[in-house]
Design goal:
The chain has 295 residues and is an alpha/beta fold. 30% of the residues lie in helices and 21% in strands. Strand 3, helix 4 and strand 4 form a beta-alpha-beta unit.
Length: 295
């Protein structure tokens, strides 16, 4: 099941997210996804008080297209409402400069931990994992936590066409992300198939208040569109498939006369690859989609 919550009030004056509206959107999304009557019990379907919970936003796009603090705050509040103590929650990003940026706006609680995992001293486990057929090290965070919540953005990628939920996790945990940057490969899908990831994946809360349909992965404001959407799913494949369709729609409707990603060297074939591995549903006609329009 995929839940899409839309509100034209999500972005307030000067395009700053409206915190109260965004928190309501996240709450409605998680309740609709689970069928539970309140936020605490809904989050309780995914995390428990003894869990060590990791939260993975995406801050690569800077101020132009990064996970908004308002969405992160709503997720942290929900996890805490389910009984997880603040000391058991960590927000992690790939590079230290991203983590420093995240620290600047993850102020929902004084003891929240924010970590940048790519450091020379502390970020990496000594254990060597084989992911997508290649030996690699992963960040200590992904080994230490028992559950993770994925809060990706939606944007164009110069190699993979689209970066959303799956790529936010895979390339936010391996020691040398460019190793897994082969175009039109199944690397992203195969990494996710590893138990290190699948056993800890709980839910995606996608920050689609805005989306970038060209020029990624770095932020390019001329290609950014306001989408006013929060999406939620346990199926990362379905949420990426929906995001891919949305990016193609924004490309078609843009003033730049952009060619479709489908059939191009950048087509995000990893989404279908993930479906073939049984990780989720790529055919949206086979996915239950609930849309909630708050006006």
């Amino acid at each position: 099941k995929l839940v899409i919550v839309k509100s034209t009030k999500a972005l307030a004056s000067r395009q700053i997210p409206n915190a109260a509206v965004v928190e309501d959107m996240v709450g409605r999304a998680i309740m609709a996804l689970t069928g539970k009557p309140d936020v605490a019990s809904a989050w309780g379907e995914f995390v428990h008080r003894n869990d060590r919970v990791g939260i993975k936003p995406n801050a690569l796009g800077g101020r132009t297209i990064s996970t908004n603090k308002e969405v992160v705050h709503a997720v942290i509040k929900g996890i805490m409402a389910a009984g997880v103590p603040i000391e058991n929650i960590v927000v992690w990003e790939t590079y230290p400069w991203m983590a420093r940026a995240m620290r600047g706006y993850i102020n929902v609680a004084p003891n929240i931990k924010v970590e940048g995992v790519i450091t020379k001293r502390e970020g990496w486990s000594k254990k060597v994992h084989t992911l997508a057929g290649k030996p690699t090290q992963v960040c200590k965070v992904i080994e230490r936590i028992t559950a993770f919540v994925n809060i990706p953005v939606l944007k164009d990628h110069d190699l993979f066409g689209v970066t959303a939920a799956m790529k936010n996790i895979t390339h936010g945990t391996v020691i040398h992300p460019p190793t897994y940057h082969t175009k039109r490969s199944d690397q992203i899908a195969r990494i996710h198939a590893d138990p290190l990831y699948m056993k800890k994946h709980r839910v995606v809360i996608a920050d689609w208040l805005r989306a970038q349909y060209e020029g990624g992965p770095q932020g390019k404001i001329q290609y950014r569109a306001d989408v006013h959407t929060i999406a939620a799913a346990t199926d990362m494949v379905a949420i990426d498939a929906y995001g891919y369709d949305l990016v193609e729609k924004l490309r078609r409707e843009s003033r730049f006369k952009l060619k479709p990603l489908k059939g191009s060297p950048r087509e995000p074939t990893y989404i279908e690859d993930a479906a073939k591995l049984g990780l989720g549903v790529a055919d949206l006609a086979k996915c239950k989609i609930e849309e909630i329009n708050l006006g």
